[in-house]
Amino acid sequence: MKVKAVIFDLFETLVSEFSKGERISNRFYNYMDFLGMTNEDFKKEWESRHQQRMEGFFPNYIAVVRDILEHAGLRYHPETVQYLYEKRVEEKKLPFLTIRPDLIKLLQNLRDHGIKLALISNCAEEEVTAWKECELAPFFDEVIFSYQAGVAKPDLRIYQLACERLQVTPEETIFIGDGGSNELEGAYQAGLHAYQAIWFQARVESTYKKFALPLEVIKELDFPKEDTSLWTIKEVNVWDVEIFWQLRLEALRLNPEAFGASYEDSLRESMADVVKRIKNDADNYILGAFTEDGKLIAITGFRREPSTKQRHKGMIWGVYIKPEYRGKGIAKELLTEVIARGRELRGLQQLKLSVVSTNYAAFELYKKLGFEAYGLEKNALVHKGQGYDEHLMAYYY
Q1: Secondary structure of residue 198 in the 3-state scheme
Q2: What is the mean pLDDT of the chain?
Q3: What letter does residue 125 receive in the DSSP assignment?
Q4: How high is the pLDDT of residue 389?
Q5: What is the SS3 assignment for 16?
Q6: Per-residue pLDDT tens digits for 210-267
Q7: From 17, 152, 238, 255, which residue has the greatest number of CB atoms within 10 Å?
């Protein structure tokens, strides 16, 4: 199959409003207090206007609520509705704050191979205010929001519009979505090749081919293997202990100035002691980047402070990338995953790490990820008589 373009759905395909089966916004409003109607009645009226909201009949959230109130014979209070609008905008920004690293890698890989990218989303204005500033936006050639286009999935016209803007035929295009709004059938009927993304959740039943992980898309397109350099970020388990320890020892041997542990001391540790380090729980884990053939090429660890007064802090330790894999964005993927996991830990407020002052690339990467330098420890480490300063950095949630 010769593919020239890939069109993605947005919600539950590129970003998700859910975590562990629950909405990340935890929203709840007593609409009787705000608007003078029960939550059940408001929900019924809100859902009855779904298609009109998606197709832009109502220009924004405020217009929808005003219409609901007018039809119910209730008084419209501009300040109250403005407040509800602003709170909804805040809620809808949450999915855009943390983007899966493997999705970024997928999009970059597609762009590197000359594939045109478009986005089609059934949405209202307040649901996508965060799009332009999110990490995904720069990858896309065309973005079609239904409320702006005046047409929504599964209407064939919205897929045809995307193909026209990309200057490709439907036969040269694949569509990837979670399957909501019957979007896969719409894409198929429009002549596109439809695939279901289930990497966030598989709540929609369909007969279309499924992708359990974003990078499976690359395999489906069958790009030359020497050009892909695929790896997966996942936890290091006890059965990975030997390859983990080999990589850890390599890090200590090649970059002794970057780690508090020494190569010589670590050589004396038993494998049984190393196994005890691999905890695999939310407060203590080791992440690795694994190639398709199981090779471990990068690692980092996370450990939450155990004491009651310090459980709001977590420590990132042992970041190391094999030299031949540096410059490919692996460190960014590892750290982004730790940051995302930390956001889901109740009570965690900050991540701390230290980086040797001579490692300029790492220091700049951490700053780009949102870490702030709060101090410089002089001679934090001494190796063979040489002192090394360390930047002390923190990421605040």
Answers
A1: coil
A2: 94
A3: G
A4: 96
A5: coil
A6: 999 999 999 898 775 544 457 999 999 999 999 999 999 999 999 999 999 999 999 9
A7: 152
